[in-house]
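Example S7 (structure tokens).
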């Protein structure tokens, strides 16, 4: 089982929460403690609440522990550090906290930022965090989320079309079955009348 699916199962599922994305990180400061910061974890209860949760796996342990959690409304700024190059470094500024991170890869950071940006757009109505020093592909139309949404939309449209066609075929089969039933009843009635006529 991957670390992300283990975290989802161990940390979020028992509380009826859903993990939207994750990035494996370590602090940019001298401490090199591996963390997995999960972003956009969402409760399944109404009203929906989104939060960012820091999860840690201690050395020698196979399980994960919830370390810190911030409501998405507390996120003030997401700093991509350098908009001109792929960099794994980023900062998250909350109302009462500031964390400096290095993701395991620049592409993992990019995916995490896209999910975080999309989650902020979807769940925050008033005060959205500022995304600074981020590459345009993170908020642009060519993001992984947009292409995934396009492919999901396409798949839904194809499935809907297939269901409509199946419904039409089932409707025609139902009409034919009804016609066959009526024909069989007429045949049975005619056969019964003939049997009665020749019986006498």
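Recovered sequence:
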């Amino acid at each position: 089982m991957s670390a992300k699916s283990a975290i989802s199962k161990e940390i979020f599922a028992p509380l009826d929460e859903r993990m939207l994305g994750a990035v494996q990180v370590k602090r940019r400061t001298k401490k090199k403690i591996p963390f997995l910061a999960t972003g956009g974890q969402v409760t399944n209860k109404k009203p929906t609440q989104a939060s960012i949760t820091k999860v840690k796996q201690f050395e020698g342990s196979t399980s994960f522990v919830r370390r810190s959690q911030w409501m998405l409304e507390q996120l003030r700024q997401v700093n991509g550090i350098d908009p001109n190059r792929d960099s794994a470094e980023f900062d998250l500024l909350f109302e009462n906290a500031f964390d400096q991170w290095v993701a395991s890869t620049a592409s993992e950071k990019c995916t995490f930022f896209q999910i975080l940006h999309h989650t902020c757009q979807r769940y925050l109505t008033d005060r959205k965090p500022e995304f600074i020093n981020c590459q345009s592909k993170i908020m642009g139309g060519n993001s992984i989320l947009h292409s995934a949404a396009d492919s999901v939309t396409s798949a839904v449209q194809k499935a809907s079309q297939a269901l409509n066609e199946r419904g039409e075929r089932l409707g025609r089969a139902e009409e034919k079955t009804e016609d066959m039933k009526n024909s069989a009843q007429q045949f049975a009635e005619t056969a019964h009348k003939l049997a009665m006529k020749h019986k006498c």
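Notes on this example. The longest strand covers residues 34-43.
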